């Protein structure tokens, strides 16, 4: 399933119907289209659930790459941008797996994305001597 329209598009009842009908993955294509109850249903059913903060990172990343090109007066080919985006998304996935793998092997991508984000900010703060 790819909820992509609006916030809270999938609630707990919708999630239970998806699970009952054999959904194997839900990847958010909007900002918070699944309610907290729906997320719990997906995680309890151990389906692959990719939260928007990880699954949607590609658009934000390409915007950042565009800003880099503009500020440094660079011009990358579409292939170069795609290669950089692939690296970014692969890194996001690896960090979600690193921080979100449960003892039973299930990858909790919400947990992984949250911890990875926290670690990135914490390391930056430590590098600047803030903490």
TrEMBL record:
The keyword Metal-binding does not apply. Residues 1-129 form the Glutamate/phenylalanine/leucine/valine/L-tryptophan dehydrogenase C-terminal domain. GO terms for molecular function: glutamate dehydrogenase (NADP+) activity. It comes from the Bacteria. Pfam families: ELFV_dehydrog. SMART domains: ELFV_dehydrog (SM00839). One of its GO terms (biological process) is glutamate biosynthetic process. One of its GO terms (cellular component) is cytosol. Coiled coil: none annotated. InterPro entries: Glu/Leu/Phe/Val/Trp_DH_C (IPR006096), Glu_Leu_Phe_Val_DH (IPR050724), NAD(P)-bd_dom_sf (IPR036291). Transmembrane segments: none annotated. The keyword Signal does not apply. Its EC number is 1.4.1.4. Keywords: NAD, Oxidoreductase. This is Glutamate dehydrogenase. It comes from Candidatus Bacteroides merdipullorum.
